Amino acid sequence: MRRTTALLLGASLVGGAFAGCRTSDPDAFPRDGYVDPHGDDDDDSTEVDPNDPEGGDRIAFLDVIQHSTFGGGVVTYEARASFFDPEPLPVPQPGVEECFANGTDLDPWNPAPSSEEFGAPVITLDGDPWELEMFGTDYWRRSLPERIWTDGDDANVLLPETELGPVQYDDVVSLPAALVGTSMTLEREVGIVVEWESDVDANQLLLVVKGDDSGRTEYVVCAPLDDGEFVIPASLFDNYPAGSVELLLRRERVNDRWVIGPQGWGRTVGVSQVRAQFLIEEGAFDPEGDDDDSAGDDDDSAGDDDDSSN
To answer: How far apart are CA 269 and CA 71, in angstroms?
Structure first.
């Protein structure tokens, strides 16, 4: 049975203090901005490490992504990293089984433009070091071979040019179980129906639909249970701009405890991501319109795009 989905329309995340998150914690966060490094557990006995910043700025983002498409196809792997001056970028996160519609000038699921302050980061997976490059992008990036991915593995990150010299951070990125997407369809009056091979409800899943509207990223983001099916309601697309959009189903493992002291804090994400690119035409979810938006159509197939660069 398909579930109805709670909607959060027009909500916003205002800057300020944010509680620190533990691995795979689904709490809302900004990709950068102020971070409370000691959490909100109200444990007054918590001993503060003098080498850690007493609260501080989020200045880094790093992810390792496994890209695939619905129904099979080419699977690719990459690592990306960005180091930046703190500038809060609100990324509202819905509660479990809820969706949120919003827009922003920056794409929340791509790294911000990066500085070269810490040198070229090196990520070690499967025992091999891989130096990221800033070539053709404004952030650090490297394509990786298939053999680097083992479900549940952790990766080390080396920053060669910190204030303390080269520093290696052990087990700072954790890889989730590989995600297998089975289908994505557009159904009039229903919405976008997404199905995948389910794992366990405890996994952190995000489902994102995003498109460009005159340089602004318009998006819908949902937080499904990892149980194999989710419906993004058609009502969320009433005012969504027609055009090419990208759908991302992401199984994530998040670490908000990457201390790059004394400068600040970073976030790392291990992601297994299934991607589809398709068209939302004018009136696609209008019950009075023509029903030509099935994911099986030539323009709307969820499995016909192997461009997995993002």
So the answer is: 24
In what order do the strands lie in the sheet containing 181-187?
181-187, 191-196, 229-233
Which amino acid is it at 88? P
Report domain extents, the chain: 6-280
The residue assigned the tokens 């990766």 is 155
For residues 68 and 249, what is the distance between their CA atoms, to the nearest angstrom?
Answer: 10
Token pair in block for residue 205: 């899943």
| Secondary structure of residue 171 in the 3-state scheme | strand
CA separation for the pair 122, 258 (Å, rounded): 15
SS3 197: coil
Closest CA to 148 of 252, 64, 68: 64
Neighbours of 21 (CB within 10 A): 20
* pLDDT less than 50: residues of the chain: 1, 3-54, 291-310
Distances (CA, A) of 78 to 24, 294, 304: 20, 31, 21
CB within 8 Å of 75: residues ≥ 6 apart: 66, 67, 68, 146
- The model's pLDDT over 175-228, given as tens digits with 9 standing for 90+, comes to 999 999 999 998 888 999 999 998 666 668 999 999 888 888 889 999 999 989
> pLDDT tens, 103-131?
888 788 888 899 999 999 999 998 999 99
H/E stretch holding 218 reads strand 216-222
pTM: 0.76
Rounded Cα distance, 106 and 281, in Å? 24
- Look at strands 204-213 and 165-174 and give their pairing: unpaired
Q: Which residues contact 76 (CB under 8 A, 6 or more apart)?
A: 66, 67, 143, 308
CA proximity to 159, closest of 83, 45, 243, 77? 83
